[in-house]
Specification:
Largest sheet: 4 strands, antiparallel
Radius of gyration: 15 Å
């Protein structure tokens, strides 16, 4: 099977990311519309309800290197957040601690990384509401329990809302 060229793949992701994903709690797009290399991206995750992240807006920076999608993007939070997969000093997401980056394949995407990060928050809630169950089904992601939603992360104190790196 032929590999889709990097720029075609990134154009597909741009179109999908700007429309918003699922219930609109995740979005991503180019940092600069004139970036012909389509390397620098912004991502947004809205914290899920019934968690310490509820109604918080987390901004991320995503860098797709020249080997993307064969190699994973570099992801970092611009908004401070307390998660085991995020370096507390600089906001960089540790590839070894986030399943979607750790097990990266060409079939993964920026969307799958953002969904993985948001789910890490969601799993922090023991009680799954019908809304969360519906959201899980709509997003169709293979592994639901992720970093932000892991039981160990449910009560992690978070930095002051709006603080940045």
């Amino acid at each position: 099977m032929a590999k889709v060229p990097r720029n075609f793949r990134l154009l597909e992701e741009l179109e999908k990311g700007e429309k918003g994903i699922g219930d609109g709690s995740i979005s991503y797009g180019l940092e600069d519309g004139d970036d012909m290399t389509m390397s620098n991206w912004n991502g947004t995750i809205i914290g899920p309800g019934h968690t310490v992240h509820e109604n918080r807006i987390y901004s991320l920076r995503i860098v797709c290197g020249p080997s993307y999608p064969d190699q994973p993007p570099e992801v970092s939070f611009l908004t401070r957040i307390n998660l085991p997969c995020v370096n507390a000093t600089n906001g960089v997401v540790d590839r070894a601690k986030l399943r979607s980056l750790q097990n990266w394949t060409r079939n993964e995407s920026m969307e799958s990384v953002l969904v993985d990060l948001r789910r890490s928050v969601v799993v922090t809630v023991l009680v799954l509401t019908e809304e969360v169950v519906l959201m899980m089904r709509m997003m169709v992601v293979s592994a639901w329990i992720r970093e932000m939603a892991h039981p160990a992360n449910r009560k992690l104190p978070q930095p002051v809302e709006g603080s940045t790196f």
